[in-house]
Amino acid sequence: MWRSLQLDLKAKKAFWQEVAPEEVAFGGRYRTGRILLEREAHRFDPLSPENPLVFAVGPLAGTGFSNANRTSVGARSPLTLGIKEANGGGTFGYALGQMKLAWLVLEGQSEDWVVLRLTRSGEVFFDPAEDLLGLGNFAAAKKLFAAYGERIAFALLGPVGERLGLLSGIAFSDIDGRPSRLAARGGVGAVMGLKRVKAIVVEVPGKAEVWDKPKVLEAVRRYARLLREDPLVMQFYNAIGTMGMADFQNAFGGLPVRNFREGRLSPPEAFRMGGQHIAPLNKSRGGKHTHACMPGCVIQCSNVIVDEKGEEVVSPLEYETIGLLGTNCGLTDPDQLARLNRLANDLGIDTIETGASLALFMEKGLADWGDYAFMEERLRSLYQDGEEARLLAQGTARLGEALGVERVPVIKRQAISAYDPRVVEATGITMMITAQGADHTAGNAPRLETRAMKVEEVLEASYTAQVNAAANDALGLCVFGGSVTNKEVAFVVEAVNAALGTRLTPGFWREVGEGVLRLEHRFNHLAGFTHQDDRLPRFFYEEPVPPKGYTARFTPEDLTPLYERLHQGS
């Protein structure tokens, strides 16, 4: 029996409710959006007790179905002021799935800082958290394991989130216990901080209950086989990881360099900030370059980066971090970037928003491009509550306003991720139109050479990517399996039926994907957003980006066919 759990933090009361299998199927990002819309979260200040914080998993969570254990976190975003879903891998979703907990809603505000603890038997405890306050994520994680044992999974708030910094995400434990898998974007950590919840600890039952175990086990095996036979999965994600996208975008001309001034950091043969250089270097030092972030995943696109002495620095180093915290700030040394990434993970912050913010100091002339010492000093300032830290912690849009910088790469107040919209146009359209803010994960098509395509084809490519991303997010699936998953929709839906005992048809995939987009679009409309909020910053339209020399060509007025689809059913 699947259930949901609502926690009244002020009264310290837990309310369980049975959830029908058909409702479980509409999980993850669909469920967070539905709850936020039903609770009318658009009416509330994002940093008020009335803003609910929702954790939701997909219907295959807790099983060994590869890459199906992501956790969606939803709230009205204090960064964008619109709807937000941020998701992450790790073990937290796996634990919730084994508890058959489809979603968890945090309501109100605790009077004292607490650790929420869920036992295998379904008991809920509101434990004091004072001894964890102010600690970085790695120290806090160590204390959680010492207090509650090794067979736990957790969602953890870093020190920036305690002080309601809008850079803050929520860190999930990985398979080795690191607090390194972040639901990072949109300031969801600040919402958890407002509620005075330092961590959520879940005891892992160790066993998943499904409707038809033989069919589920066969689906697990078949999906794993399909992934292992897929060239993109095995030759790119498994072999190199997401950092391979840095090599591609550097050659393609879509890499953010020095606050999106250029699309290429260096000639491809001299590029040192991508997987072609970092992967063999890391392996030669004894690092891992094939590593699973969640139980059962065969893609294993994560990594464990070590230094020249073979000592662990960070896990993982991913493309978005390379693009925004790295090349966008003018860094050229991957070892320096890895150390900054470690700091960011300890602070529990979004490396995309952080990198875009730090670049504004350089844009203003307060530091040189690639000034590692300056970047490290600014990140370390975030451990303390000072004026400098508060300014940085409020995110790129607000920092740009405070510094008086005009060249600020944001949409809906959220930093544009590592795909220049002048070159990677389909993803740029996604980042413009999505209710999530400038978020590539809402529908990425990073390899399309769109200048050879018709406009309607580019729009369709973005829309298809958005529907597929939303469906994957609703089912708790990592999009890096998309080269298989998106082609095997009927099989995936049958796997869900086997797990839940439902009778969903293959049309469910598109139904849930489009349903997510329309829910989110409706929420933002009610929150006061208009199509004009989807426009790119002016410099993208005015400045040609080297080496291709492109300027942006899409405006909200060009997106009318997509708006018409999003308005259906509203």
Using brief descriptors, characterize the structure shown:
570 residues, alpha+beta, six-stranded mixed β-sheet, 23 helices, 17 strands
Question: Can you offer a commentary on this structure?
Answer:
The chain has 570 residues and is an alpha+beta fold. The chain is 40% helix and 15% strand. The protein is built from 23 helices and 17 strands. It has helices at 21-25, 28-38, 92-98, 137-148, 159-162, 188-194, 213-228, 231-238, 244-252, 275-284, 319-326, 334-347, 351-363, 372-381, 387-393, 396-403, 425-433, 455-474, 482-485, 489-500, 508-526, 538-542, 560-567, and strands at 3-8, 13-18, 53-57, 71-76, 83-88, 101-107, 114-118, 124-128, 152-157, 170-173, 179-183, 197-203, 288-291, 302-306, 312-314, 410-411, 414-415. The strands form four sheets. A six-stranded mixed sheet has the order 2-1-6-3-4-5, with helices on both faces. A six-stranded mixed sheet has the order 8-7-12-9-10-11. The protein has a three-stranded antiparallel sheet with strand order 13-14-15. Strand 7 and strand 8 form a beta hairpin. The two termini are 32 Å apart. The model has no long low-confidence stretch (mean pLDDT 97).
